[in-house]
TrEMBL record:
Upper classification of the organism: Bacteria, Pseudomonadati, Pseudomonadota, Gammaproteobacteria, Oceanospirillales
Binding, [4Fe-4S] cluster: 100, 106, 109, 185
Protein name in UniProt: 23S rRNA (uracil(1939)-C(5))-methyltransferase RlmD
BP terms from Gene Ontology: rRNA base methylation
Active site positions: 444
Taxonomic source organism: Vreelandella andesensis
GO terms for MF: 4 iron, 4 sulfur cluster binding; iron ion binding; RNA binding; rRNA (uridine-C5-)-methyltransferase activity
């Protein structure tokens, strides 16, 4: 669910933070003997943590701090056990009734039993603890929270036909490949949630539903999009999908083929492929757009708009929570205070999520991505918005490449980092030799951020500001923003 396609390099699980459990030798246990434990705290992944009478750590699904619970161990490992609650003897004041009927079955929103304020405090505590492990002490942490529970503007739903011939549509169960059949999703934006029942009805009528691998849903400023992963063409079923698109007023695309699927647009609209774009209101970022730069396609009739449009394609990375993403961009703008004459380096730039707003304020931005296709997209977006952004391709995981890149741009005033889950270790190690005055780091894994922050601090940087963005409501995942300043 976290990615829409494949163009931006995938965010592999780091195994550092506890948000994704590392493979380990384990023994499945069928022993249902109850053990009474007291939950001490939450693990990084949101499970309760307790210790049995022998002192062994026990991770307990859906248990909250302070609760007395009778548990049964379902997995025994060398250093710890994994358990589930058989009987809850006391109940935490922080416990709430989950809003989703599939809570506990679906592997998505695993913190819905914890009230929202406690969820967000837990995420700030995780960041503080991981930084402390690296010897870093944080001051106050700002909160960048969204206002809506129905926040998710893209999702991937699996499709499977069971042994009885029933077609299932939904998300995976926790730590399993088993598909949980759903009729609604509490966190999807309304336009996408409204498609689930019609999709179920359509799938039940297909002649060959086994040819459908999954369905991706995307809500944009201009269109609602349904992308079908079709392993092999089936004319009758494709006609059914087309009628569905016309009835639901959605743009329909089909990824066709097994090994190297090709996208075919079957839009309900005569225009074919829909316009996929992110719209950024500079007024909401407190930016008064600077004068248009002298670029070749500018004409005297051009008007300065305070709306930026960032075009993208299926497969390009896009944050799932539009409101929180806007707040993150606003936070970076407030920290860096870009202005004409500044030169900024935006690494792991994506479609220009940070690059274009920074350039709109007047800064000269060098945007770097690993994918040549993404470099073309950034360039196109900059030209369409008449902004001074120079995009280039580089492997940012290679220290020699990063050194060459920084040597070419020694006049930069600040660096923006927005890496995938495995972080930006090579960049942070190399930065120590260049003394860039400010670094704004946006991270989706607080453990790799803590590792990279330690590199920067040991090189003479100081943590000046920290913010935690609740990008993924009701889950243990979070986005962390940190501002570093070089002090020597």
């Amino acid at each position: 669910m976290a990615m829409l396609g494949k163009r931006r390099p995938p965010r592999p699980a780091s195994g550092h933070s506890g948000l994704v459990r590392k493979p380990n030798r384990k023994t499945e246990s069928n022993d249902e003997t109850s053990t009474t434990l007291v939950v001490e705290r939450l693990a990084h992944d949101g499970r309760g943590v307790a210790h049995n009478t022998a002192g062994k750590t026990v991770f307990i699904d859906q248990a909250l701090p302070g609760e007395h619970v009778d548990v049964a161990v379902h997995v025994t490992r060398k250093r710890y056990d994994e358990a589930h609650i058989k009987t809850r003897l006391t109940t935490s004041e922080q416990r709430v009734q989950p809003a989703c009927v599939y809570f506990g079955q679906c592997g998505g929103c695993d913190l819905q039993h914890l009230n929202l304020a406690a969820q967000r405090q837990h995420k700030r505590d995780v960041v503080t603890e991981l930084m402390a492990r690296q010897g870093l002490t944080l001051g106050s942490i700002a909160a960048l929270d969204g206002s809506s529970e129905h926040y998710r503007r893209r999702a991937r739903l699996g499709v499977r036909v069971d042994g009885q011939g029933n077609v299932l549509l939904g998300f995976r169960a926790p730590n399993s490949h088993r598909l949980v059949d759903i009729e609604q999703c509490h966190v999807l934006v309304p336009a996408l949630n409204a498609l689930i029942l019609p999709l179920r009805q359509l799938l039940a009528t297909l002649a060959s539903p086994r040819l459908v691998g999954h369905v991706e849903l995307l809500a944009t400023n201009e269109a609602t999009v349904v992308l079908v992963r079709q392993l092999k063409a089936h004319d009758q079923d494709m006609a059914r999908w087309q009628r569905f698109a016309e009835q639901q007023h959605v743009a329909l695309g089909t990824w066709l083929g097994r090994e190297t699927p090709v996208l075919h647009w079957n839009s309900a609209h005569s225009s074919g492929a829909p316009t996929l774009q992110e719209v950024v209101n500079l007024d909401e970022l407190d930016i008064q757009r600077a004068s248009l730069p002298n670029i070749e396609h500018r004409s005297s009739a051009d008007e300065v708009s305070n709306l930026l449009t960032l075009r993208f394609s299926p497969g390009d990375f896009l944050q799932v929570n539009a409101e929180v993403n806007q707040k993150m961009v606003a936070q970076v703008i407030a920290w860096l205070k870009p202005s004409p004459g500044q030169q900024l380096l935006d690494l792991f730039a994506g479609i220009g999520n940070f690059s274009l707003p920074l350039a709109a304020a007047g800064a000269e931005v060098i945007a770097v991505e690993g994918s040549p296709a993404m470099v073309k997209q950034i360039t196109a977006n900059a030209e369409a918005n008449q902004l001074d952004v120079h995009a280039q391709q580089a492997d940012l995981s290679d220290a020699h490449t990063v050194k060459r890149l920084l040597s070419e741009h020694q006049q930069i005033d600040a660096v923006v980092l927005d890496p995938p889950r495995n972080g930006a270790e090579a960049v942070c190690q190399v930065l120590s030799s260049y003394n860039v005055s400010r670094v704004a780091y946006i991270s989706c894994d607080p453990a790799t951020l803590a590792r990279d922050a330690a590199h920067l601090v040991h090189a003479g940087y100081r943590v000046k500001q920290v913010a935690v963005a609740d990008m993924f409501l009701h889950t243990a995942h979070l986005e962390t923003l940190m501002l570093f300043e070089y002090e020597g």
